[in-house]
User: Which sequence fits this backbone?
Protein backbone atom coordinates (compact mmCIF):
# COMPACT_ATOMS: atom_id res chain seq x y z
CA UNK A 1 0.00 0.00 0.00
CA UNK A 2 1.17 3.53 -0.77
CA UNK A 3 1.37 5.83 2.25
CA UNK A 4 2.33 8.85 0.16
CA UNK A 5 1.11 9.43 -3.37
CA UNK A 6 1.60 12.48 -5.55
CA UNK A 7 0.18 13.06 -9.00
CA UNK A 8 1.51 15.76 -11.32
CA UNK A 9 2.46 17.88 -8.36
CA UNK A 10 3.74 21.28 -9.45
CA UNK A 11 4.91 24.19 -7.35
CA UNK A 12 5.81 27.53 -8.83
CA UNK A 13 7.25 30.18 -6.54
CA UNK A 14 6.61 33.69 -7.78
CA UNK A 15 9.01 36.22 -6.37
CA UNK A 16 6.67 39.19 -6.36
CA UNK A 17 3.21 40.17 -7.44
CA UNK A 18 4.42 42.15 -10.42
CA UNK A 19 7.58 40.23 -11.16
CA UNK A 20 7.99 37.72 -13.96
CA UNK A 21 10.63 35.91 -12.01
CA UNK A 22 9.32 32.54 -11.01
CA UNK A 23 10.88 29.24 -10.00
CA UNK A 24 9.36 25.87 -10.82
CA UNK A 25 10.37 24.03 -7.65
CA UNK A 26 8.34 20.91 -8.54
CA UNK A 27 7.44 19.97 -12.08
CA UNK A 28 4.61 17.45 -12.56
CA UNK A 29 5.99 15.18 -9.88
CA UNK A 30 4.29 11.81 -9.55
CA UNK A 31 5.71 9.42 -6.99
CA UNK A 32 4.63 6.83 -4.47
CA UNK A 33 6.08 5.86 -1.13
CA UNK A 34 5.17 2.38 -0.01
CA UNK A 35 4.18 1.51 3.51
CA UNK A 36 6.98 0.35 5.86
CA UNK A 37 9.78 1.40 3.53
CA UNK A 38 12.66 3.81 3.95
CA UNK A 39 12.48 6.14 0.95
CA UNK A 40 15.42 8.37 0.06
CA UNK A 41 14.75 11.61 -1.78
CA UNK A 42 17.95 12.80 -3.41
CA UNK A 43 18.87 15.74 -5.55
CA UNK A 44 21.27 18.67 -5.79
CA UNK A 45 20.66 21.93 -3.93
CA UNK A 46 17.45 23.54 -5.06
CA UNK A 47 16.07 20.32 -6.61
CA UNK A 48 12.74 20.62 -4.79
CA UNK A 49 13.15 18.08 -1.94
CA UNK A 50 12.16 20.41 0.90
CA UNK A 51 9.36 21.87 -1.21
CA UNK A 52 7.86 18.39 -1.58
CA UNK A 53 7.98 17.72 2.17
CA UNK A 54 6.45 21.13 2.93
CA UNK A 55 3.60 20.47 0.51
CA UNK A 56 2.94 17.03 1.98
CA UNK A 57 2.74 18.61 5.42
CA UNK A 58 0.40 21.41 4.33
CA UNK A 59 3.00 24.09 5.15
CA UNK A 60 2.82 25.42 1.59
CA UNK A 61 0.27 24.75 -1.14
CA UNK A 62 0.93 23.19 -4.53
CA UNK A 63 0.29 25.28 -7.63
CA UNK A 64 -1.35 22.29 -9.29
CA UNK A 65 -1.55 18.51 -8.97
CA UNK A 66 -2.64 16.23 -6.20
CA UNK A 67 -1.05 14.62 -3.15
CA UNK A 68 -2.33 12.15 -0.57
CA UNK A 69 -0.98 10.77 2.67
CA UNK A 70 -2.60 7.69 4.20
CA UNK A 71 -5.03 7.71 1.26
CA UNK A 72 -6.40 11.16 2.19
CA UNK A 73 -5.88 14.42 0.38
CA UNK A 74 -3.22 16.55 2.08
CA UNK A 75 -5.81 19.23 2.76
CA UNK A 76 -7.22 16.83 5.38
CA UNK A 77 -5.22 17.88 8.43
CA UNK A 78 -6.29 14.81 10.47
CA UNK A 79 -3.84 12.56 8.61
CA UNK A 80 -0.98 14.84 9.69
CA UNK A 81 -1.46 13.66 13.28
CA UNK A 82 0.20 10.42 12.24
CA UNK A 83 3.28 12.17 10.81
CA UNK A 84 6.58 13.08 12.50
CA UNK A 85 8.78 15.80 11.00
CA UNK A 86 12.37 16.89 11.37
CA UNK A 87 12.70 20.12 9.35
CA UNK A 88 15.85 21.23 7.57
CA UNK A 89 17.82 23.86 9.56
CA UNK A 90 15.29 23.78 12.36
CA UNK A 91 15.47 26.36 15.15
CA UNK A 92 14.26 25.55 18.63
CA UNK A 93 13.73 28.39 21.13
CA UNK A 94 17.21 28.99 22.55
CA UNK A 95 16.08 29.73 26.11
CA UNK A 96 14.52 26.28 26.49
CA UNK A 97 16.29 23.13 27.64
CA UNK A 98 16.23 19.99 25.50
CA UNK A 99 13.65 18.44 27.77
CA UNK A 100 11.42 21.54 27.63
CA UNK A 101 11.56 21.46 23.83
CA UNK A 102 10.26 17.90 23.79
CA UNK A 103 7.51 18.80 26.26
CA UNK A 104 6.55 21.84 24.20
CA UNK A 105 6.26 19.92 20.93
CA UNK A 106 4.66 16.90 22.62
CA UNK A 107 1.95 19.10 24.11
CA UNK A 108 1.40 20.76 20.75
CA UNK A 109 0.70 17.35 19.27
CA UNK A 110 -1.80 16.62 22.05
CA UNK A 111 0.20 14.16 24.15
CA UNK A 112 -0.79 13.62 27.79
CA UNK A 113 1.73 14.58 30.50
CA UNK A 114 2.50 11.07 31.81
CA UNK A 115 2.97 9.67 28.32
CA UNK A 116 5.09 12.67 27.38
CA UNK A 117 7.37 12.19 30.39
CA UNK A 118 7.84 8.50 29.56
CA UNK A 119 8.43 9.10 25.84
CA UNK A 120 10.81 12.04 26.28
CA UNK A 121 12.94 9.95 28.68
CA UNK A 122 12.93 7.08 26.21
CA UNK A 123 13.84 9.18 23.17
CA UNK A 124 16.42 11.38 24.90
CA UNK A 125 18.21 8.19 25.84
CA UNK A 126 17.78 6.72 22.34
CA UNK A 127 19.47 9.73 20.71
CA UNK A 128 22.14 9.81 23.41
CA UNK A 129 21.12 13.22 24.80
CA UNK A 130 20.16 12.30 28.38
CA UNK A 131 23.02 14.21 29.94
CA UNK A 132 22.12 17.39 28.04
CA UNK A 133 18.43 17.34 28.87
CA UNK A 134 18.68 20.21 31.38
CA UNK A 135 21.04 22.28 29.20
CA UNK A 136 19.72 25.27 27.28
CA UNK A 137 19.45 24.95 23.48
CA UNK A 138 21.77 27.94 22.95
CA UNK A 139 24.62 25.77 24.25
CA UNK A 140 23.88 22.87 21.89
CA UNK A 141 26.18 21.99 19.01
CA UNK A 142 24.75 21.37 15.53
CA UNK A 143 24.87 17.61 15.97
CA UNK A 144 23.14 17.84 19.36
CA UNK A 145 20.36 19.93 17.80
CA UNK A 146 19.89 17.28 15.13
CA UNK A 147 19.67 14.51 17.72
CA UNK A 148 17.09 16.47 19.69
CA UNK A 149 15.21 17.19 16.46
CA UNK A 150 15.09 13.50 15.71
CA UNK A 151 13.73 12.75 19.20
CA UNK A 152 11.09 15.44 18.61
CA UNK A 153 10.12 13.84 15.27
CA UNK A 154 9.61 10.42 16.90
CA UNK A 155 7.88 11.64 20.04
CA UNK A 156 4.20 11.15 19.23
CA UNK A 157 4.74 7.66 17.82
CA UNK A 158 4.12 8.64 14.17
CA UNK A 159 3.55 6.02 11.49
CA UNK A 160 5.19 8.19 8.84
CA UNK A 161 8.31 10.25 9.48
CA UNK A 162 9.73 12.99 7.24
CA UNK A 163 13.38 13.76 7.90
CA UNK A 164 14.94 16.65 6.00
CA UNK A 165 18.73 16.18 6.14
CA UNK A 166 18.68 14.28 9.46
CA UNK A 167 22.43 13.77 9.71
CA UNK A 168 23.42 17.31 8.74
CA UNK A 169 26.23 18.39 11.08
CA UNK A 170 26.36 15.08 12.92
CA UNK A 171 29.72 13.34 13.43
CA UNK A 172 30.36 9.85 11.94
CA UNK A 173 29.49 7.99 15.16
CA UNK A 174 26.34 10.05 15.56
CA UNK A 175 25.42 9.36 11.93
CA UNK A 176 25.78 5.63 12.49
CA UNK A 177 23.58 5.94 15.61
CA UNK A 178 20.95 7.82 13.61
CA UNK A 179 21.05 5.21 10.83
CA UNK A 180 20.57 2.46 13.40
CA UNK A 181 17.64 4.33 14.94
CA UNK A 182 16.01 4.72 11.52
CA UNK A 183 16.49 1.05 10.67
CA UNK A 184 14.97 0.13 14.05
CA UNK A 185 12.00 2.43 13.57
CA UNK A 186 11.48 0.90 10.16
CA UNK A 187 11.59 -2.63 11.59
CA UNK A 188 8.79 -1.51 13.95
CA UNK A 189 6.73 -0.79 10.84
CA UNK A 190 7.28 2.96 10.38
CA UNK A 191 7.54 4.49 6.93
CA UNK A 192 10.37 6.99 6.60
CA UNK A 193 11.13 9.64 3.99
CA UNK A 194 14.73 10.88 4.17
CA UNK A 195 15.98 13.90 2.23
CA UNK A 196 19.72 13.67 2.07
CA UNK A 197 22.88 14.67 0.27
CA UNK A 198 24.86 11.90 1.93
CA UNK A 199 24.46 9.29 -0.74
CA UNK A 200 26.63 6.64 0.87
CA UNK A 201 24.33 6.80 3.90
CA UNK A 202 21.17 6.67 1.89
CA UNK A 203 22.57 3.63 0.13
CA UNK A 204 23.02 1.89 3.47
CA UNK A 205 19.47 2.30 4.74
CA UNK A 206 16.99 3.13 1.97
CA UNK A 207 14.86 0.56 0.16
CA UNK A 208 13.85 2.92 -2.62
CA UNK A 209 15.28 6.19 -3.85
CA UNK A 210 14.11 8.95 -6.15
CA UNK A 211 16.41 11.52 -7.70
CA UNK A 212 14.98 14.98 -8.29
CA UNK A 213 16.61 17.61 -10.44
CA UNK A 214 15.13 21.06 -11.03
CA UNK A 215 11.80 19.80 -9.74
CA UNK A 216 11.68 16.83 -12.11
CA UNK A 217 11.83 13.18 -11.14
CA UNK A 218 14.80 11.88 -13.10
CA UNK A 219 15.29 8.41 -11.60
CA UNK A 220 13.41 6.15 -9.23
CA UNK A 221 13.89 2.58 -8.11
CA UNK A 222 15.22 0.26 -5.45
CA UNK A 223 18.82 0.90 -4.40
CA UNK A 224 19.58 -2.65 -5.55
CA UNK A 225 18.19 -2.10 -9.07
CA UNK A 226 19.74 1.32 -9.52
CA UNK A 227 23.23 0.35 -8.47
CA UNK A 228 23.63 -3.00 -10.25
CA UNK A 229 25.49 -2.73 -13.54
CA UNK A 230 23.80 -5.17 -15.83
CA UNK A 231 25.74 -8.21 -16.98
CA UNK A 232 29.11 -7.19 -15.56
CA UNK A 233 30.58 -9.72 -13.16
CA UNK A 234 33.59 -9.59 -10.88
CA UNK A 235 35.15 -13.05 -10.73
CA UNK A 236 37.66 -14.02 -8.06
CA UNK A 237 39.66 -17.16 -8.62
CA UNK A 238 42.76 -19.11 -7.62
CA UNK A 239 45.95 -17.90 -9.35
CA UNK A 240 45.59 -17.71 -13.13
CA UNK A 241 48.51 -18.74 -15.36
CA UNK A 242 49.89 -16.44 -18.06
CA UNK A 243 48.21 -18.46 -20.82
CA UNK A 244 44.80 -18.42 -19.12
CA UNK A 245 45.09 -14.68 -18.57
CA UNK A 246 45.86 -14.28 -22.28
CA UNK A 247 42.84 -16.36 -23.26
CA UNK A 248 40.61 -14.34 -20.91
CA UNK A 249 41.87 -11.14 -22.48
CA UNK A 250 41.68 -12.18 -26.12
CA UNK A 251 38.68 -14.50 -26.24
CA UNK A 252 36.53 -13.26 -23.40
CA UNK A 253 37.50 -9.56 -23.48
CA UNK A 254 37.92 -9.73 -19.71
CA UNK A 255 39.32 -6.77 -17.78
CA UNK A 256 42.09 -8.22 -15.62
CA UNK A 257 42.57 -6.63 -12.20
CA UNK A 258 45.11 -9.09 -10.78
CA UNK A 259 46.19 -12.69 -11.30
CA UNK A 260 43.14 -13.88 -9.39
CA UNK A 261 40.56 -11.22 -10.03
CA UNK A 262 38.94 -10.03 -13.26
CA UNK A 263 35.80 -8.41 -14.68
CA UNK A 264 33.71 -10.09 -17.35
CA UNK A 265 30.88 -8.47 -19.28
CA UNK A 266 28.62 -11.20 -20.57
CA UNK A 267 25.70 -10.75 -22.90
CA UNK A 268 23.83 -13.65 -21.28
CA UNK A 269 23.90 -16.01 -18.32
CA UNK A 270 24.76 -18.80 -20.78
CA UNK A 271 27.94 -16.92 -21.78
CA UNK A 272 28.90 -16.51 -18.15
CA UNK A 273 28.45 -20.24 -17.64
CA UNK A 274 30.60 -21.03 -20.69
CA UNK A 275 33.38 -18.97 -19.13
CA UNK A 276 32.95 -20.85 -15.83
CA UNK A 277 33.10 -24.17 -17.76
CA UNK A 278 36.36 -23.03 -19.31
CA UNK A 279 37.90 -22.01 -15.97
CA UNK A 280 36.81 -25.25 -14.27
CA UNK A 281 38.19 -27.31 -17.16
CA UNK A 282 41.53 -25.58 -16.51
CA UNK A 283 41.18 -26.62 -12.82
CA UNK A 284 40.81 -23.02 -11.67
CA UNK A 285 39.03 -22.59 -8.35
CA UNK A 286 36.31 -19.96 -8.37
CA UNK A 287 36.19 -18.14 -5.04
CA UNK A 288 33.41 -15.67 -5.78
CA UNK A 289 31.26 -14.28 -8.57
CA UNK A 290 29.44 -11.03 -7.91
CA UNK A 291 27.50 -8.66 -10.10
CA UNK A 292 29.32 -5.37 -10.42
CA UNK A 293 27.70 -2.50 -8.56
CA UNK A 294 27.94 1.23 -9.02
CA UNK A 295 27.68 3.34 -5.92
CA UNK A 296 24.63 5.53 -5.57
CA UNK A 297 27.04 8.45 -5.84
CA UNK A 298 28.20 7.29 -9.31
CA UNK A 299 24.60 7.00 -10.40
CA UNK A 300 23.68 10.39 -8.95
CA UNK A 301 26.56 12.16 -10.67
CA UNK A 302 25.85 10.42 -13.99
CA UNK A 303 22.17 11.26 -13.89
CA UNK A 304 22.67 14.91 -12.96
CA UNK A 305 25.48 15.37 -15.52
CA UNK A 306 23.33 13.85 -18.29
CA UNK A 307 20.52 16.24 -17.39
CA UNK A 308 22.93 19.16 -17.66
CA UNK A 309 23.88 18.29 -21.26
N1 LIG B 1 9.66 30.35 -0.33
C1 LIG B 1 10.27 30.34 -1.51
N2 LIG B 1 10.17 31.36 -2.36
C2 LIG B 1 10.80 31.35 -3.56
N3 LIG B 1 11.53 30.32 -4.02
C3 LIG B 1 11.64 29.26 -3.22
C4 LIG B 1 11.04 29.19 -1.92
N4 LIG B 1 11.35 27.99 -1.35
C5 LIG B 1 12.11 27.34 -2.26
N5 LIG B 1 12.28 28.10 -3.37
C6 LIG B 1 13.04 27.70 -4.57
O1 LIG B 1 12.55 26.44 -5.00
C7 LIG B 1 13.60 25.61 -5.47
C8 LIG B 1 13.59 24.30 -4.66
O2 LIG B 1 13.97 24.58 -3.32
P1 LIG B 1 14.03 23.46 -2.19
O3 LIG B 1 14.30 24.14 -0.91
O4 LIG B 1 12.81 22.62 -2.28
O5 LIG B 1 15.30 22.61 -2.67
P2 LIG B 1 16.04 21.39 -1.95
O6 LIG B 1 16.08 20.27 -2.92
O7 LIG B 1 15.44 21.14 -0.62
O8 LIG B 1 17.52 21.99 -1.80
P3 LIG B 1 18.62 21.76 -0.64
O9 LIG B 1 19.30 20.47 -0.96
O10 LIG B 1 19.56 22.92 -0.83
O11 LIG B 1 17.94 21.76 0.68
C9 LIG B 1 14.87 26.42 -5.32
O12 LIG B 1 15.15 27.00 -6.55
C10 LIG B 1 14.51 27.48 -4.29
O13 LIG B 1 15.24 28.66 -4.50
MG1 LIG C 1 16.16 21.21 1.29
Assistant:
Amino acid sequence: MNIVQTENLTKIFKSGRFSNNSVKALDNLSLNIEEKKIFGLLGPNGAGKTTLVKILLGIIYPTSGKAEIFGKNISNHQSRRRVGFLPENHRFPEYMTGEQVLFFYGELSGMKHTELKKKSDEFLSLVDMEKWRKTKIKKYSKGMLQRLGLAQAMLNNPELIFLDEPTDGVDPIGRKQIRDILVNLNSEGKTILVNSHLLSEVELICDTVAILNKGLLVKEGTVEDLTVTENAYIIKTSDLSESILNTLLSQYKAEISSKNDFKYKSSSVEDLNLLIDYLRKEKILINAISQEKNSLEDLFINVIEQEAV
Q: What stands out?
A: The longest strand covers residues 2-14.
